[in-house]
Amino acid sequence: MNNLVKLFRDEKGQTMVEYGLLIALISIAVIAVLVVLGPRIASFFQAVDTQLASSTPAPVPPPVP
Predict the structure, then answer these.
(1) What is the secondary structure of 6-60 as a DSSP string?
(2) I need a surface site. Which of 2, 33, 39, 48 has the fewest CB within 10 A?
(3) Residue 5 lies in a domain
(4) What pLDDT digit, counting tens, does each position of 2-37 carry?
């Protein structure tokens, strides 16, 4: 009986489980945000790519002999 009481009072494993649950919840939140904002981020970078492709590059000066 004494060992059973010690087992229930030992809280070392509980902290590890709590950290695991926090990491799982944070991971789910990050995945949800990426799913929601993913298309917006992709279209933003696509617009930047289009602007860069359509712009004219600056002239390169000739090499100095």
Answers:
(1) HHHH--HHHHHHHHHHHHHHHHHHHHHHHHHHHHHHHHHHHHHHHHHHHSPPPPP
(2) 2
(3) no
(4) 776 766 666 666 778 888 999 999 999 999 999 999
